[in-house]
Design goal:
Rossmann fold; two-stranded parallel ribbon; 9 helices; single chain; four-stranded parallel β-sheet; alpha/beta
């Protein structure tokens, strides 16, 4: 870890950095998502920063089923994966650090998408083109998405209007099923929608076996299937931005069908595809 300084005169800090993955040792997640967050937050207060916004994740609720969920909804403990577990610790720490001297606020985005995405939707588009993409139980489960510009709107409004020590869901609130999502991307890519589908228990068992093999042989790169991925796609994961709309004035602008078109268009240009 390298030391860092906050420039003189800075009044607002948005902390977005972190380790985002479904594979790797717990200590690396803890150092990146908890230790570094605490260091930055304390330094911010020391130099007179007035507002500190922490980008948490909706995943801290856990992945075992959510419909019409708000911030006060179900929490599965512990949440699946070291990413969500350490983000949950960090969020609690940030919220408790709130004071009259420095307001701390957290936002919980769901899966972010948009042009230039190379971490989540990029690999999905790669898999669709290679006919390697599949869904769980026919893709019937709900998923939550937020377009990148709507995320930016949400974090700006949370920084300005959020209540100190509180957290807000920043999600589009649109009901999207995995099948619809994959179909829309495939259509824009100009290819047939992948037909591969697996029952949840088969996919989960496969992920368990793969994870066991990778851990046994200490393979650094994660397997193509992990329990976190299967749980994410194998349960409803639908959240609402109710509190963000009421308290922050947050209003998502990008319909997901249009957002997919923009995202895929940029992907095809970047990849040199027609």
């Amino acid at each position: 870890m390298k030391p860092y300084d906050i420039p003189e005169g800075v009044t607002d800090v948005i902390h977005a950095a972190g380790r985002v993955s479904d594979w790797g040792p717990y200590q690396k997640f803890y150092e990146a998502n908890v230790v570094m967050t605490e260091d930055l937050m304390k330094k911010a207060k020391e130099v007179g920063v007035k507002k500190f916004l922490f980008i948490s994740t909706i995943d801290i609720h856990g992945l075992l089923g959510h419909i019409d969920e708000t911030e006060d909804g179900v929490y599965y403990s512990p949440p699946t994966g070291f990413y969500a577990q350490t983000k949950k610790i960090a969020e609690k720490m940030v919220r408790e650090f709130n004071s009259e001297e420095m307001k701390t606020v957290c936002i919980r985005p769901c899966t972010v998408y948009g042009p230039g995405d190379t971490t989540v939707q990029g690999p999905i588009m790669d898999a669709i083109l290679k006919n390697q993409m599949g869904v769980i139980s026919g893709g019937k489960f709900l998923t939550s998405r937020v377009y990148v510009t709507d995320l930016v709107q949400g974090l700006c409004r949370a920084l300005e209007f959020g209540t100190g020590g509180d957290a807000y869901n920043i999600v589009s609130g649109e009901k999207i099923r995995w099948k619809e999502w994959v179909e829309a991307i495939s259509k824009e890519l100009g290819v047939k929608t992948p037909k591969l589908s697996s029952p949840y228990w088969v996919a989960y068992l496969g992920a368990c076996i793969l994870e066991g093999i990778y851990k046994l042989f200490r393979i650094k790169n994660g397997p193509i299937l992990t329990r976190m991925r299967i749980q994410h796609a194998g349960h409803d994961f639908y959240f609402l931005p109710t509190k963000a709309k009421k308290e922050l004035g947050f209003e998502p602008k990008m319909p997901w069908q249009e957002g997919v078109k923009v995202m895929v268009k940029e992907y095809k240009e970047r990849k040199g595809l027609k």
